């Protein structure tokens, strides 16, 4: 796909068709919910960017969408919301980006700007919010359109594969860490250690926290120790010391009481995922008494994204990736579902 002048959409005939994967019939990954498609290269609207996709991270939310845990909002949607791309066309109203720039498309792609949540700086709670790869086609494709106001400028001195996981795994992990109310130098528990967790852990470590990782994967436990975690144990084990804060990244409701019991007095558990299996009945004395808090995390604001990307650059965050060719997107989802991905899975168009 060749570059085009600002404001001019890419041709949509002949060879300018883009390969992509769309969710056909949602179901278990073994049933083949992803369908290979060829579609015309999309044209950007007045406030949009057309990106030639360089890489797109594979998020657990994509798995939830493919398997039907997250009900589809439109038929045959292309998943993917950790998009690193090169701007090949811009809409007439775009001023922040030019053709040739590198830009990132993330999960949040639109809010109303006028509701009480938006006015209060909590746009992640906007009732009219829209999301990439759910309300509109995402980055499991060779080309994608993203709104310029919700895109992030990205550096040229890092590979697209390394940058992609920052755009959701990193941003959501950052917000979850802040929602956990971890005090300076505090004791943090992390339950599950995939793409988001291994990035949030590095932010906490850089801020002086003692990090204890609880996860079923032996490889993930080793990665946690390699990154500087104080301990790494099985998901249902007790950490070696009481926790000031914890973040649950694994979408497993059974771990909620486990994590709450590991908290010290006044500790906070933040649940990072968009989907969670049912939480067992909680016992007030064991799980919540002594002012323990239980919090959810809903999407992110653009400010979260900007803060995290600055933090990641400042601390030199290490992104562990497992690259897959775009043609192997179903395998990437299968490996993610089975817990076989080390760090973050990233799709790379060829």
UniProtKB/TrEMBL annotation:
User: Which key words are in the record?
Assistant: Metal-binding, Oxidoreductase, Zinc
| Keyword Oxidoreductase part of the UniProt annotation | yes
Q: Name one Pfam family in it.
A: ADH_zinc_N
Report the catalytic activity. a primary alcohol + NAD(+) = an aldehyde + NADH + H(+); a secondary alcohol + NAD(+) = a ketone + NADH + H(+)
Instruction: State if Zinc is listed as a keyword.
Output: yes
- InterPro entries attached here? ADH-like_C (IPR013149), ADH-like_N (IPR013154), ADH_Zn_CS (IPR002328), ADH_Zn_typ-2 (IPR014187), ER (IPR020843), GroES-like_sf (IPR011032), NAD(P)-bd_dom_sf (IPR036291)
Enzyme Commission number, as recorded: 1.1.1.1
What is the enzyme's class at the highest EC level? oxidoreductase
Which residue intervals define the domain Enoyl reductase (ER) in the entry? Answer: 32-347
Q: Which cofactor does it need?
A: Zn(2+)
| Membership in a protein family | Belongs to the zinc-containing alcohol dehydrogenase family.
User: This chain belongs to which protein, by name?
Assistant: alcohol dehydrogenase
Q: Which organism is it from?
A: Streptomyces bugieae
